[in-house]
Design goal:
Strand content: 25-35%
CATH architecture of the domain at 39-186: Roll
CATH class of the domain at 39-186: Alpha Beta
CATH superfamily of the domain at 39-186: 2,3-Dihydroxybiphenyl 1,2-Dioxygenase, domain 1
Helix content: 10-25%
Structural class: alpha+beta
Low-confidence stretches: none
Radius of gyration: 19 Å
Order of helices and strands: EEEEHEEEEHEEEEHEEEH
CATH topology of the domain at 39-186: 2,3-Dihydroxybiphenyl 1,2-Dioxygenase, domain 1
Largest sheet: 8 strands, mixed
Number of strands: 15
Strand order of the largest sheet: 5-6-7-4-8-11-10-9
Number of helices: 4
Length: about 280
């Protein structure tokens, strides 16, 4: 995946907000990180995204098995709902998986020996850990409009109409309550095609009894948030304006981009933030 934006946390500008996605930073491919040095370790559990899934082209799992082996990252193959996937954790404990999917456009970004025929396309979806799975299922199907596909073991599978990031598995049995920290996911984002559709969602979700925030300007998109009854934080974000707003598509991610309100503090922030260099690993 490509580092498509270096910016800062709007609420804590002394901390990076790093965005990774496909070559163009397309909606449905973006995952972000706040690298807080010395932060406490979190606990993955109810009220969180439990597993983040990435989609790769059909036939690419053999490449990813070898790559994980080469970097000495433990993994185990799993079959679920008729699909083959590789499950593993990142160095901080984030639960990840790679799954082969036919849908989704090819990621043309070439870097570090990863070619488009095996490259991550974007999100495959996520597995949600809910403190009240029945209520979360009700939301997904009857409010968010996902299609119920079926159940397997302790997972309930839903699908949206998109061609990427479109599969949501819901754990049907509550476990331990999650604790926010390193190695956990803060929220899951859903797409709105523009500001008008986002406002429609804001009104609709509020009418269903959920407490929805005002629209938040995130520079590259607008966002609203609400916590569903299973305690998972949902975001609905607009597709536009996108990550080429303040730098070219060719140079995205190469330097620190600051929102207007923090530009006057650039010198101080650049002294505080640890410099980032994207490097190829061998």
């Amino acid at each position: 995946m490509r580092l498509v934006k270096q910016t800062v946390n709007f609420d804590d500008p002394g901390t990076y907000h790093l965005y990774f996605g496909d070559e163009g930073g397309s909606p449905g491919t973006i995952i972000t990180f706040f690298p807080w040095i010395g932060a406490r370790q979190g606990i993955v559990g109810d009220g969180q995204v439990g597993v983040t899934s990435y989609a790769v082209p059909k036939g690419a799992l053999a490449f990813w098995k070898k790559r994980l082996e080469d970097f000495q990252i433990p993994f185990h193959p799993v079959e679920r709902f008729g699909e083959q996937c590789l499950k593993f954790d990142d160095p901080h404990g984030l639960h990840l998986e790679i799954v082969e999917r036919e849908e989704g456009k090819v990621n043309t970004w070439v870097f570090g020996g990863i070619s488009p025929d095996v490259s991550i396309k974007g999100f495959g979806g996520a597995t949600l850990f809910s403190s009240h799975p029945n209520q979360t299922a009700e939301l997904l199907e009857n409010v968010m409009g996902l299609e119920l596909l079926g159940e397997e073991g302790d997972l309930i599978r839903f699908r949206s109409s998109a061609d990427i990031g479109n599969i949501i598995d819901l754990k049907s049995i509550p476990t331990e309550k999650g604790q926010t920290g390193v190695g956990t996911v803060h929220h899951i984002a859903w797409r709105a095609q523009d500001d008008a559709e986002q406002i429609e969602w804001q009104k609709y979700v509020a009418a269903k009894g959920y407490g929805v925030t005002a629209v938040q300007d995130r520079n590259y998109f607008n966002a609203i948030y609400f916590r569903e009854h299973g305690e998972i934080l949902f975001e609905i974000a607009t597709d536009p304006p996108g990550f080429a707003l303040d730098e070219s598509r060719e140079t995205m991610g190469e330097k620190l981009m600051l929102p207007m309100q923090y530009e006057k503090f650039r010198e101080q922030l650049e002294q505080r933030l640890i410099p980032i260099q994207v490097r190829e690993l061998s």
